Fold this sequence. Notes:
By secondary structure, this protein is an all-beta fold. It has strands at residues 2-3, 8-10, 21-23, 44-46, 52-57, 63-68. It contains no helices and 6 strands.
Amino acid sequence: IFFSTSSVGIGPASFTPETRLHVQGGVEVDGGDLYTNSSAEGPILRSPSNACWRMLTSESGKLTTESVACP
């Protein structure tokens, strides 16, 4: 685990975080939900062709995606 004043990283000793929280390797949420409190932000998934898509939901719960730059 790597700590600095601006970021936290979880990974091998040679690992340097690139964002405020950066995990190198798999992440598992056991017994809980993954939540974001912003309606304009959401999980970003990479497609097999390396395009990135953000998942969003409408007021009625309909899921949509929008193309975004890959982080």
